[in-house]
Design goal:
It is a single chain. Helix content is 58%, strand content 8%. Helix 1 runs antiparallel to helix 2. The protein is built from four helices and two strands, in the order H-E-E-H-H-H. The N and C termini lie far apart (51 Å). A two-stranded antiparallel ribbon has the order 1-2. The longest helix has 23 residues. By secondary structure, it is mainly alpha-helical.
């Protein structure tokens, strides 16, 4: 896979920072509205779209976490570093103290926990079955 040792949640993190610091746009701007069957309109904001992208990338991160080996360990370390950076920015930078960035940070934490949980399980090659005697009938 070509995305080895690259935390995919870095993409929405970078997009958030570009929108906030370079474009100076709020995340409450409505991009488009969806007409629902219930005759209501559902507005989709910039923050909503960014979170949807982050959730899809988190799914890909879960698929990557199922790998084993040195590259997977580097992936987990980079995900942890990204989460620490996101949490620090959330607590220290006033422009990052938004619900959208908080949810991005939570997704980063979930990524770290999934990586630890998946890598902690035993591999098939580590499972040893003992020889058993056949049961007499």
């Amino acid at each position: 896979m070509f995305l080895i040792a690259f935390p995919l949640l870095l993409v929405p993190f970078t997009l958030y920072n570009m929108v906030v610091f370079l474009l100076n746009m709020p995340f409450t701007d409505v991009l488009f509205t969806l007409n629902l069957i219930s005759q209501t309109r559902f507005p989709v904001t910039t923050g909503d779209l960014l979170l949807v992208i982050a959730m899809l990338l988190l799914y890909l991160e879960v698929l990557k976490a199922a790998r084993f080996g040195a590259k997977a360990i580097m992936d987990h370390v980079l995900s942890l570093a990204l989460f620490v950076g996101m949490a620090a920015e959330f607590m220290l930078v006033p422009q990052a103290a938004t619900p959208t960035f908080f949810l991005l940070t939570v997704l980063g934490f979930i990524d770290v926990i999934i990586g630890v949980s998946v890598s902690a399980r035993p591999r098939r090659s580590e499972i040893v079955l003992e020889d058993t005697e056949p049961v007499p009938r």
